[in-house]
UniProtKB/TrEMBL annotation:
SUPFAM superfamilies for this protein: Sec1/munc18-like (SM) proteins
Membrane topology, record value: Peripheral membrane protein
Location, primary (coarse class): membrane
Taxonomic source organism: Smittium culicis
Subcellular location: Endomembrane system
Name this protein carries in UniProt: Vacuolar protein sorting-associated protein 45
Keyword Zinc-finger annotated: no
Superkingdom in the source lineage: Eukaryota
Family that this chain belongs to: Belongs to the STXBP/unc-18/SEC1 family.
Oxidoreductase among keywords: no
GO biological process assignments: protein transport; vesicle-mediated transport
């Protein structure tokens, strides 16, 4: 996965609704051109989400720059040649709002990962050597093997490592919980030498566990997943559950706002939504959520309500829906109630990969950039993504959970359809960064 590192402080994305800030457009195009040069591959086919002017602007700018700098891009592409797919975050505001339960996405969601570093300096009673933790798939075998494990399996994996050392040291100290393992590591300094990087992960997982319990995140996540994934209309029940959550003093303002957004996005076509929205905002204010945070609700809806999206985030009767049957056809493996959600683009991408003839519904979602390239015109392969390198780029940022699903697509469809995938975005976001991207813009 690649990121162009475009934060709202250095490269605010928007100039006005669905229009790039010029500096951000320049940075995005330069970043992608650099990627093409490093891969020695030039996309011969560019598709972009049909409702996104920003995706079209970027596709057009890339096409112009490649033509203008044709001498730089004169290398011979692999055959068949790569596809660039440009996606717009506004078509899926749900994924970045959800709590994550696999290791790497969870770390980024709760602490943030900045250039491979995690800042734990504010954690209580943290040892000096763990105030900043470095995560690297190249130099950290445990992280490389565990980064996509769900939180339950992660605890088992760490326990196995610690148990092995305990057997070797002939210690009888109990290891029934993450807290027990943390104490064991602290009592046996030599474990840190023998276990390589595992000891820092004991500390990191211990901190994750503390935050999950302290902020009641299992409770929060169950409602989030129900709002995002339940195909039945449960307006009244969800409204009741959300009201109870807003009134719960153990739940942080950030989680209350995210759940309110999920509810309003889920039911925004309901006849009762205006009254519900006003009531929920009053409840948030009553329970000490700041006015600035409440104002972000309207900002997100201004950016990504159903009037501005394409596809359907919630209706499982649609061919490109996120319903359970589509999920089963696309990617196998709903692991538990907290990880039901599959990012919206996954089913669309799977359809694009599997399609072997022109499909009007795919064409409606993913427009083909007009080009004068005779090779494309003659190829009759403009609708095919199979047997290709597919570069997927997210305007507005990509999440680690979306990267995880790219890995699943590669493992389940890669050999059968002969595809390889590279995914990236303007930045790698979590819920906080997603809202900041909009707060530092014309929307606010």
């Amino acid at each position: 996965m690649f990121s162009l590192g475009m934060s709202p402080s250095n490269y605010p994305l928007f100039d006005k609704p669905d229009v790039w800030n010029n500096f951000a457009l320049q940075r995005a195009s330069q970043g992608l051109l650099s990627l093409f040069l490093s891969l020695k591959q030039t996309p011969i086919i560019t598709r972009y989400e049909a409702n996104s002017n920003m995706a079209y602007q970027l596709a057009k700018e890339l096409n112009y720059q490649i033509g203008f700098e044709s001498s730089l891009f004169s290398f011979k592409n692999s055959d068949p040649q790569p596809v660039l797919l440009i996606l717009d975050r506004k078509n899926d505001p749900v994924t970045p709002l959800l709590k994550q339960w696999t290791y790497q996405p969870m770390i980024h969601d709760l602490f943030g990962i900045n250039n491979g570093r995690v800042d734990l300096s504010r954690a209580p009673n943290i040892k000096p050597e763990y105030k900043e933790i470095v995560l690297s798939t190249e130099n950290d075998d445990f992280f490389n093997k565990s980064m996509r494990l769900n939180f339950g399996d992660l605890g088992v994996s760490i326990k196995n490592y610690v148990n092995a050392f305990q057997d070797a040291s002939k210690s009888n100290q109990k290891l029934d919980s993450i807290d027990d393992m943390k104490k064991f590591v602290e009592n046996y300094p030599e474990f840190r030498k023998l276990s390589g990087n595992v000891s820092k992960h004991v500390t990191l997982v211990s901190e994750l566990s503390r935050v999950v319990n302290e902020r009641s995140l299992l409770y929060v996540s169950e409602l989030e997943q129900s709002l995002a994934c339940d195909s039945n209309n449960q307006f009244d029940e969800h409204m009741k559950q959300l009201g109870e959550m807003i009134g719960n003093n153990k739940i942080r303002s950030e989680e209350k706002v995210c759940c309110t957004l999920l509810f309003l996005l889920r039911y925004e076509k309901s006849a009762s939504i205006a009254n519900a929205s006003n009531f929920l905002k009053q409840e948030l204010l009553k329970h000490h959520v700041s006015q600035d945070s409440i104002d972000m609700i309207d900002v997100v809806l201004m950016y990504a309500s159903y009037k501005y999206r394409q596809g359907d985030l919630f209706n499982n009767d649609n061919i490109f829906s996120r319903g359970k049957q589509a999920l089963k056809r696309g990617l196998q493996g709903v692991e538990n109630v907290y990880t039901q959600h599959t990012p919206f683009y996954v089913d669309n991408l799977v359809k694009l990969i599997k399609e072997n003839k022109p499909n009007s519904k795919i064409e409606q979602l993913f427009k083909l950039l007009p080009t004068n390239n005779s090779e494309v015109a003659a190829s009759k392969l403009s609708y095919k993504a199979r047997n290709r390198l597919i570069i997927v780029f997210f305007i507005g940022g990509i999440t680690y959970s979306e990267h995880n699903d790219i890995s699943k697509i590669k493992s389940q469809l890669g050999s059968e359809y002969g595809i390889n995938l590279i995914v990236g975005g303007t930045s790698i976001i979590n819920s906080k960064m997603f809202l900041q991207n909009l707060n530092n813009s014309f929307f606010s």
